[in-house]
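Attaching the record inline, Q. Sequence:
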Amino acid sequence: MKASRREFLQRSALAASGLYFGTRNAKAEYLLPEVLPSPEAGLLFDESDVPRILQTIKHPRFADYWKSMQYADLKNDLQFLKDELRLNNHVKDMLRARQILERSSFVYRLTHDKQHLEVARVAIDRILEYKRWDYFLEAGEHTIALQRASEATIAMSFAREWLDDALSVDTKLEMEKQIGEKGAAACYRTLFGMMHPDRVRGWGFDPEDDYQYRFDLSRWPIILNSTNLKVIPIAGLGIGGCLLYGKHPQAKRWVDMALQSAKAFSTMFGADGSYEEGVGYWGYTAQHLTMFIEVLQRRTGNDQRTLLNFPGTVRYALRMSMPAIDHPSDCVNFGDAWYMGDVSCAPWAARVFKDPVAQYVALSVGEIRSHYPFIWYDPSVKAQVPGPELYDVRFDNDWVTARTGWGVMDSVVAMRSGGPANHEHADRNSVIFKAYGERLLHDPLHAAYSYTEPHWLLRLTESHTAVLINGKGHQYHDGHEGTNSSWAEAQLKQYENEKNHVIVTSDASEAYRLVNPNVDAVYRTLFFLKPDVLLFLDRVRMKDTPATVQIRFQAYNEDKNAQFQIDKDEFTISRPHAALKAKIKCTGSFTISTDKLNVPEANGIHPYVEVNSMDAKEHILLTVCTAQQKGKPHGDLSLRRDDNGWKVTGTHNGQFINVRIETNKDIPGVMVG
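Structure, as predicted:
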């Protein structure tokens, strides 16, 4: 049926505001402004854009990062470049040289500062001296561009444009030559290998590089095809190819490969914009896709701005944010995410889609760690604080976050269900809880990237707010191939969200069964009664042999300020500004104890509470938690059991609580009175 004029105008208004329509699993649809290409257009901006960018760097959101670029210690940089840089060290030294080049070439382009120009010229000369631009090889001979060659290609391409009038003809020709030979060719070889892993003649480390952590790369063409390390050569190849378009006979082939690979990789983002490697890697990944898409459109007219759901992926970052006291960039750090990181693609999404929520993220969430937001920020798009409709979400990858708001003092609960992912931990059914400015249930930070280091332990189930069976977690790999995916699966079986509460049930049975075939069922149900009451119901059932079950509650202790108090059937985790008090009920006998993870103190002190349920074929444990600000009393909650489940009643912070949980089924019935 043909849409009416009113319907058409309504849909157009939604699209223009950056809001999408359709089902949860449908890709977004947008009406985008036409942007005409020009072979002479700047890769990211033109001379006419410079006045706007110079205004942007004065904005409070961007000023500090700009000052860190403009007033960098150039004397120290010159000393490093001239006297300290090692041509067989790519991990640290080439990385630093590339970062110096990106910074100083951009500062010079805006300010014509001659000191930055001098530093940029030296950085170019030193990068050109490297025998190869990366420390990975195919067949022991040909460079593959997993990191440094891709990054160097991007930096050198932008520097070639931004320093155009300040470089000699010979230098510009040599830059273009090496961008093609050491950069783009290596990027192409990398993407070709991921596309055709059966044709790869073996990936490995460069024996001349001094990188010390070496492991088996034989399956990396397959493994990395679905990780962020594919996006960097996509961006490098695409940007380098666009720079050399019309100059180099392979340039079109390079751009075509970059685009084909970008389209294939875009499916790593959910239709809702979620990203399975975690929000810390989201920024890095989305930014490089954005850079390539922008350069591609400006230079060739190929418009890929709906390659993925960009407004949705910015909302994913927003919903994974978890600002805390003294940590405004804290986040739901499933896996190796650590902190929120860069939100550079948010101002681009706000500009392109006229999206007020993306503009809010650009100005209020995470950090600015690159100069690209200076280029993309559009002050005409007014930021809009997201409303309650975005508070609670089940992402397409079966991760759940629920909250009371976006501020430091608001509550956030997150549960990690779903499938494997690169950079993951053994964390199925694990939970993070922040309230009153403090992480009260923690997910570890700074886990080792190498299995040879003792704090590899931080990746395992025992280091999470999760379940152990006979002291063991669920399946995870041994690290010999890096931080790639395991086989562990969990699935959400229940998700209900109302204005004042959220109910989630996740089934991780298969993940545990891969370790212990005697496992029949491992279910966790969360009931979040906003703003500060959280109930866990854990059910573990064995097929034949009885087992013990441990439930761990990890405390945030980066500042060494976590404290515990234990009683017969309850415990308290205290932080400087808030505390979590938990009461436990179990179908069998149990004990509560405290301990810390067995890692060297140099890698942190990681304390936890453990509830140990004694030998049984079936365990059903109820944990009722209340969060409270320091100095204020917790409510008095009563937990009573009958044949079909538990009833929780009482008052906390003036809120009357009347919850019944029926446990006669794996997916419990939860009724709120």
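DSSP finds 17 helices and 24 strands in the chain. Residues 390-672 form a domain with the Beta-galactosidase; Chain A, domain 5 fold (CATH 2.70.98.70).

More tomorrow.
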